[in-house]
Amino acid sequence: MKAMRAGGAAIVTLVLLFLAAPILIVVIVSFSSAAYLSFPPPALSLRWYRVYFGSSEWLVPTGLSFGIAAAVVVLSTLLGTLAALGIGRLPPALRAPIAALSLSPLVVPGIVVAIGVYYAYSRYGLVGNPIGIVLGHTCLAVPFVVTSVSANLAGLDRRLEQAALGLGATPLAAFWQITLPLIRPGILVGALFAFISSFDELIVSLFLSGTGAITLPRRIWDDLRFALDPTIAAVSTLTIAVTLVVLGSVHLARRRSERLRIANVGLPE
Amino acid sequence: MTTLAESGIATAGRQPKLPTAPLGPLLLVAPLVLYLLVFYALPVAAMLMRSVTDPHWTLANYARLPADPVFLRVLSTTLTTAAVVTIGTMVLGYPVALAMVRARPVVTNVILAVVLLPFWTSVLVRSYAWMVLLGRHGLINEALTAAGLIETPLRLLNTALATHIAMIHILLPYAILPLASVLRQIDGALLRAAAGLGANPWRVFRQIVLPLSLPGVAAGMLLVFVLSLGFYITPALVGGPRDTMLSMLIAQQVDLLNWPYAAALSATLLAVALALIGLTLRLPTLRQALRGVRR
């Protein structure tokens, strides 16, 4: 019994190590002083970060990726939140196909979406153009907003809204003063996931970036095909840091939403 | 009295505007539906149409697939890779999912963090990590040489094995999360009853936990299999030169501007993926399990 439990714990630890170690090794290698990949690093240094921060070849794509992700957040949060507010109230016959359409980018293989948008966008000058990438990434980001806001709405006490309407609030005022503040955590989580989905996206960018709109993942991809320069380890570590900051914010937003839900429970039946 | 009456009238007058009216929800979903039709669904549909309209209405682009040696080789690589990755993630993922459900809250949170961190790290960065580990002068070869176990570096990178390992690493969370959500719902009283009646832990697992967790196993396996079929970045970076997957063949054909063939391949890939996802969602227990995958 005890041996079995210890054996189980060992297996689980090994699998968790398998999950975490590759990422930790990239982080460690990025602080290496050596000109080639070696582990453990002979000494620690920031030389690869200096290369990154001193090169417009890396900084320009980074700026572009942040800009594109910001635009995607605005567009997908707006479209996704409005849709989430509507979908639950649609007649069932309409609800299923519309939900399927808005969630399908999660399961349609990336290459199919990528060459589809490439095929159509190239006719309208949207290849090699940041606007094209924003339009494509928004399709992929929308499902995160729709699911996150819908989940938030499902946990909401609808009687609060009805109470506001019953007390004479206009539907707009009820939405603005009651519903919106209650679903704000869901909107925030959706927006953060939309940000990461665009910031890390590669397949659509590979086809839409052309020569005029090189995003950061596209820049890493181009580099990876030729060399395994430790600069990429530094860039990877920075993108992991961006991801961690965003995930930390998600965690805080979810905790806030839990608190609001607990506060709602106090309402009498 | 007046205010009450007024508010009563006011609410009555506003009844049609209440959220149950069908026009309001339609207006709310309309912008997204229009956006997705214009910038996503119609572009993909127009591209797929090239497979049956080039140069005129024809099914020739599909009819040639079963006799096309390139397609058959790529299809076999894709299916084999997906199968190996699916089995690999389930074998490695099951103990982790079990530990996640059984452990103390602190340990559960640690496991969850270790599972979610790679989940959210970009596929590109994780593929790069495996290039660093498996390369000719990568960490594994360096370590084995230093230990005196090998004299010349092993060829690990750019092999089918590298693709399998990296894809298992990337897809493991998709197997763990639905499984954990099903395992969590197993009634603890059942396990205590079985143990109280004298079943040893292995027997409790085999006769109670394992059968009850099968919907989670099925949901996780279907999800991992479908996602594997469409993999592009990882096999292109760490895979062997001959191990072309379906997505890579599609990209190559687009580079050659061979749209009818690329479209026929895309339609095939899409049909298989949607059929498998449709099957998963049609079975209520699997559908329930998929809720556990919350990114």
What keywords describe this structure?
heterodimer, A: mainly alpha, MetI-like fold, 11 helices, B: 295 residues, mainly alpha, 2 domains, 14 helices, globular
Q: Could you characterize the architecture of this molecule?
A:
The complex is a heterodimer of chains A (269) and B (295). Helix content of chain A is 77%, strand content 0%. With 269 residues, chain A is an all-alpha fold. Chain A has a single domain (43-265), classed as MetI-like fold, CATH 1.10.3720. In chain A, helix 3 (56-87) packs across helix 6 (130-154) and helix 3 packs antiparallel against helix 8. Chain A is globular, with a radius of gyration of 23 Å. In chain A, 47% of the residues are buried. Chain B contains 14 helices and no strands. Chain B has helices at 2-14, 23-53, 60-63, 69-102, 105-120, 123-134, 139-146, 160-184, 188-196, 201-229, 233-238, 246-255, 259-282, 284-290. The longest helix of chain B is centred in the first third of the chain and has 34 residues, at 69-102. In chain B, 77% of the residues lie in helices and 0% in strands. By secondary structure, chain B is mainly α. The interface between A and B is large, with 88 and 89 residues.
